[in-house]
What does this fold into?
Amino acid sequence: MHSEVTACTSVLVRAQFHYLYSLASECMTGEGDMTTYDDDVAAVNFDHNDDSVVVIIGSGAGGGTVAHELSEKGISVVVIEAGPRLKLTDFVNDEYDAYDMFTWTDKRTSTGNGEIARKWADSPSWVCKLVGGSTVHWAGLALRWNDEEFRARSTYGEVPGTSVTNWPLNLSDLEPYYAKAEDKMGVTGTNGIPHLPETNNFKILNLGARRLGYEKVNTSYMAINSEPRDGRNACDQIGFCMAGCRSGAKWSTLYSEIPKAEATGNMELRANSMALRVEHDPSGKVTGVVYVDEDGNQQLQKARVVVVACNAIESSRILLNSASNVYPDGLSNSSGMVGKNWTRHMTGYAYGIFDKPVNYHRGTNASGLVQDEWHHDDDRGFAGGYLMGTISLGLPYYAAFLRPGGWGREFSQDVEAYNFVSGIFINGEDMPIESNAITLHDTERDQFGMPVPNINVDDHPNDVAMRNHSLKRSSEILLAAGAKRVLECPPMPGSHNMGTCRMSDSESDGVVNKWGQSHDIPNLFIADGSIFSTAGGCNPTLTIVTLAIREAEYIAEQMRTSTI
Ligand SMILES: Cc1cc2nc3c(=O)[nH]c(=O)nc-3n(C[C@H](O)[C@H](O)[C@H](O)COP(=O)(O)OP(=O)(O)OC[C@H]3O[C@@H](n4cnc5c(N)ncnc54)[C@H](O)[C@@H]3O)c2cc1C
Ligand code: SF4
It folds into this structure.
């Protein structure tokens, strides 16, 4: 994707970028007074042969949360993280530089006719490689699922060509853990936390949506501090949420869960360390993780329990790369489901161009939602529901994603309209398809000699029908609010990665049980978006954190009773 991004960064765009951002300089400093979680803390070191520890691979939403929860319970934890550890002061309010700093750019290939595979062939998925994982990049939208979404197969019936299923749990199982996650992350509109202020972008969304008769319009539920909380600053509304949030107002495991876990004295973080495979003994129990450390040396960290939390693509890749005589198809893959059913949400967005300046970049990147279409309705001609929300991007991303590879007079006019646009992002449930899968490339290897992952993605007709419906409604909202012209834009690379190690009641239909525990190997767990049975219509991270808290509680109990 980066080559595409670079290709459409003309001198004009760069010059405009600096000009427009200088206009907003009064709210760009982002230098907060947060000190609590950015300081170095005394490190604990576990021996490589210590087989009493829980090894967690990945420090993002899932891994960072499990690490904190277990270490608070007195359990020894080693976190192996492929990327570097940054401080808030390393962040730069420039989307390109932030992209280069955070993004997982190790080689990946793609196949299939899905729009994102065609447009972003070398990176149909957008994830991060650093301590904190994609929670450094994320926009902070944090919503609970609807109950019907956990019963997707029962609610939608059979959807031909899909493997849509029910989850082995429902909303009531998760409610107490959702409450803990919202408290942990400081989600606005919960726990007495005020909502964030209305941005210009939100005011336009609100106006247009209400003129169309929509009623569930709000400034959203955000894991962004609207007031100082938990040692983190309040949001300055500077609008660089996806560039890392220098003020620390946005929740990230980088400066919340990870330092808190370290402060217990029970967790060791090994950054710049790439896990290659999970080892097991002759009985099939996992025994440790082989990784390349920051000095380039291969190490084996022994373990009592292993938790894989590498985001849905890399988690599948590690399990597949751990194939052995005992597990010839990879770990936890007796069902053959590892890597399959990749979902990433149906996405797209629309811009309205207005007569007067909107300055949509002022305020959080996501600042409002319309929830009225977020439910299943047979009459719309597709299964599942979707959200429409505001989106605001800096000029570099605006230009890059508007029409990938765009050029010429019309394109530059649309880029020049930057200050006059308001944006709506759509996010809806995409259908799981077994052949939308992560597999190991036959010949291509990465810098560690590990097979690169290939991502196959085809668009299901249900996704296309939902996309058409939601883009039409988004355009209508913008026109109803007074837009003179609407631009419909293609989907961005998938940043919500789910489904590739899905949870199931039956061992033949999924990879883990409702606790995130492997059906095949009791001391192996998975704790990221890959365990979602289906995708639901809303952003996944609150649910990843919720499941991780619940999973950590289960792991601790199983360890206490020596079941694992
Ligand atoms: C631009 C952007 C905006 C987003 N906005 C939102 C939003 O508003 N709301 C929302 O809910 N979600 C959002 N997301 C998605 C959200 O960031 C992810 O859902 C969430 O972070 C996924 O958590 P995870 O634990 O699965 O993976 P991650 O948080 O990505 O963490 C995985 C970690 O594993 C590490 N890793 C991978 N492989 C290895 C290996 N072999 N060895 C060692 N370490 C490894 C990675 O380096 C990474 O740190 C956004 C994502 C992006 C990119
Ligand atoms: S959350 Fe976004 S808008 Fe708020 S301070 Fe952080 S970067 Fe700025």
Notes: The mean pLDDT is 92. The chain has 15 helices and 17 strands. Residues 2-560 form a domain with the FAD/NAD(P)-binding domain fold (CATH 3.50.50.60). The longest helix spans residues 461-480.
